[in-house]
């Protein structure tokens, strides 16, 4: 079990978005006009990539409405 957990954590860290990739993602994210479209983009990205906390915070500031930030 410990080995499985170590492998899961290593896999997660390998999926974390590099700063250059995040920059491109953020540009695409900000170009979207509606919060729902931004949420869809983020949700479709999560199975393949992980975000750092500071990246999530930056994306949350882009939302127009508080309810979208909570999702």
Taking the sheet with the most strands, its summary is:
none
What value does the Rg take, in angstroms? 14 Å
Helix segment tally: 5
Strand content: under 5%
Shape: elongated
* Estimated helix fraction: over 70%
Give the termini distance in whole angstroms.
Answer: 32 Å
The H/E string reads: HHHHH
Stretches where pLDDT falls below 50 for ≥5 residues? none
**pLDDT averaged residue by residue:** 82
Structural class comes to: mainly alpha
**How many beta-strand segments?**
0
Describe what this molecule looks like in 3D.
The longest helix has 14 residues, at 2-15. This protein is elongated. The protein contains five helices and no strands. 72% of the residues lie in helices and 0% in strands. The protein is mainly alpha-helical and 71 residues long. The model has no long low-confidence stretch (mean pLDDT 82).
């Amino acid at each position: 079990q410990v080995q499985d957990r170590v492998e899961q954590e290593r896999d997660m860290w390998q999926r974390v978005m590099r700063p250059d990739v995040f920059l491109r993602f953020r540009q695409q994210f900000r170009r979207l006009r509606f919060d729902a479209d931004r949420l869809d983009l983020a949700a479709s990205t999560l199975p393949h990539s992980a975000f750092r906390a500071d990246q999530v915070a930056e994306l949350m500031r882009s939302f127009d409405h508080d309810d979208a930030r909570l999702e």
